[in-house]
Design brief:
- With about 325 residues, this protein is an alpha/beta fold.
- It folds into two domains: about 35-125 and about 255-325, Bordetella uptake gene, domain 1 (D-Maltodextrin-Binding Protein, domain 2, 3-Layer(aba) Sandwich); about 130-225, Periplasmic binding protein-like II (D-Maltodextrin-Binding Protein, domain 2, 3-Layer(aba) Sandwich).
- About 45% of the residues lie in helices and about 20% in strands.
- It contains eleven helices and nine strands.
- Strands 1, 2, 3, 4, 5, 6, 7, 8 and 9 form a nine-stranded mixed sheet that branches.
- It is globular.
- Bound molecules: D-malate.
Length: about 325
């Protein structure tokens, strides 16, 4: 190439770069840079596990990296607040669970709007829970565990991830069903709480299969029951709560992906399409199955289906929480 031609090529490249930089953000194809998804619980827990699998697969589909950031504490409200207050440009997202349906009633004073502060992108999965204990807990069945809980309730401790966390709701259900309150120890997520159950400093915890399955299989912890109507393929030897004599002890944990309020519909739509592709990724489906869960159907991974489901769940939990007078403040 002649010097003149090279100079012309360089000038053209500089012009193109300047033109791209001058484009308003809205005119650039989305996404044109790294995205961040906030997990409102500690690393190593069930929400973190689900989010990392989804982020990896969605990032491939979007052609950008999705960074997962943990912002745990206060039952998931710290991380949710960060996203509600973020720029509504699609680059900061939230992956949260059933807590999005209980928080609006449980927390009467929040520094963000727990419903109006978000756009929905799509549901992700619904995860069963298991009642687990430290490995030398003096019981081998749910019936034996209930007898120990009733006898030693003042000495036993139960871990959760703060008010509004799935482990908190599940613990409330358990304590109500067996009529025996225990000392509750809150963590920033069940990731760190699980380490305390494994080490034997925490007696009991209710946690999602995405966090407990491998610990149960390796014998690091004991399990008494699943909180589902049917046995789980990933844990076929574990009885359901009904089989084990506690039919009212049932709860599953749905998860969804959100953006800050005001994020344009074209962007939430693009993210929803990428989520649907991610949820059909055979690698993700296989890993979810190993962890005792499954992605939702594509029709549920849309902004509209997610919003409808979320609002219905808020309405379902409202009278339950108000009736129990169990507020976070
Ligand atoms: C977590 O990721 O730590 C959990 O989802 C917390 C919980 O809700 O129990």
């Amino acid at each position: 190439m002649s010097r003149l031609a090279r100079r012309a090529t360089l000038a053209l490249a500089a012009l193109a770069a300047a033109a791209a930089a001058a484009l308003p953000a809205a005119a650039q194809p989305f996404p044109s840079r790294t995205l961040t998804v906030i997990v409102p619980f500690a690393a190593g827990g069930p929400t973190d596990t689900v989010t990392r699998l989804v982020a990896e697969s969605m990032g491939r589909e979007l052609g950008q990296t999705i960074v997962v950031e943990n912002a745990g504490g206060a039952g998931g409200t710290i991380g949710a607040q960060r996203v509600a207050n973020a720029k509504p440009d699609g680059y900061t997202l939230l992956l949260h669970h059933i807590g999005m349906a209980t928080t609006p009633t449980l927390y009467r004073r929040l520094a963000y709007d727990p419903v109006g502060g978000f756009e929905t992108i799509g549901l992700v999965t619904e995860v069963p829970m298991t009642l687990v204990a430290k490995k030398d807990f003096p019981a081998n069945t749910l019936a034996e565990a209930i007898a120990v809980i009733r006898r030693d309730q003042e000495k036993l401790n139960y871990a959760n991830a703060g008010i509004g966390a799935a482990s908190h709701l599940c613990g409330l259900l358990l304590m109500k069903a067996v009529d025996a309150p225990m000392t509750t120890v809150p963590f920033r997520g069940t990731g760190p709480a699980m380490q305390e159950v494994i080490s034997g400093r925490i007696d009991l915890m209710c946690d999602q299969t995405t966090s407990t399955t491998e610990q149960i299989k390796s014998g690091a912890i004991k399990v008494f029951a699943t909180t589902t109507p049917a046995r789980l393929e990933a844990l076929p030897e574990v009885p359901t709560s009904a089989e084990a004599g506690l039919p009212e002890f049932q709860v599953t944990v749905w998860h969804g992906l959100y953006a800050p309020k005001g994020t344009p519909a074209e962007i939430t739509g693009r993210l929803s399409k990428a989520l649907q592709v991610a949820l059909a990724d055979p690698k993700l489906v296989a890993r979810f199955a190993e962890l005792g869960t499954a992605p939702v159907a594509a029709a549920m991974a849309t902004p509209e289906a997610h919003r409808k489901f979320w609002l219905a769940d808020i309405a379902k939990w409202k009278p339950i929480i108000q009736g129990a007078g169990q507020y976070a403040d």
